[in-house]
Amino acid sequence: VATEYEPVVTRFKDVLGELISDVRVTHRLTDSPACLVTEEGDLSSHMRRVLKASGQDLGAGQPILEINPDHPLIVKIREESEGARFEDWAHVLFDQARLGDGTPLDDPAEYVRRMNSLMLGLL
Questions:
Q1: What are the C-alpha distances in Å from 73 to residues 43, 93, 105?
Q2: Residue 37: beta bridge partners?
């Protein structure tokens, strides 16, 4: 991780904690601020859902959050000094990445609350 991105990567790791296994900066994303990936050799989130639905317990395999440092949302979040707002942004981006991955949200009402709070802050 380039030195300039270390503070935001560390903040994402601190906020998301056990929801993720790591946070990485990537330049392969173009339109998205973030995505979820798995380590090489790990089961994909889709395969985990299929196996879980068939009754197999696979443990908690956590995804890696990759962030696009050039996306306007990530650029803005890097400047966010208020802890609670950064936490909301981090969780919203994580949840959006989960939705993009086809994974249902654990708490849709909390996602909506965070989105509403962030949108009100923009007014």
A1: 29, 9, 21
A2: 64
44: helix, coil or strand?
A: coil
Helix intervals (H) in 1-123: 6-16, 45-53, 72-78, 83-100, 108-122
Per-10-residue mean pLDDT, the chain, length 123: 83 95 93 89 61 64 91 92 92 96 92 95 84
- Provide the token pair at 37: 């990936």
Which structure tokens are listed for 64?
A: 């890696």
pTM of the model: 0.83
Provide the 10 A C-beta neighbour count for residue 99: 13
**Distance separating alpha carbons of residues 14 and 91, to the nearest angstrom:** 11
Residue 30: what residue type?
T
d(CA 95, CA 43): 20
Q: Is 37 helix (H, G, I), strand (E, B) or coil?
A: strand
Buried b (16+ CB within 10 A) or exposed e, 33-69: bbbbbbeeeeeebeebbeeeeeeeeeeeebbbbbbbb
User: Phi then psi for 66, rounded to 5 degrees?
Assistant: -105, 130
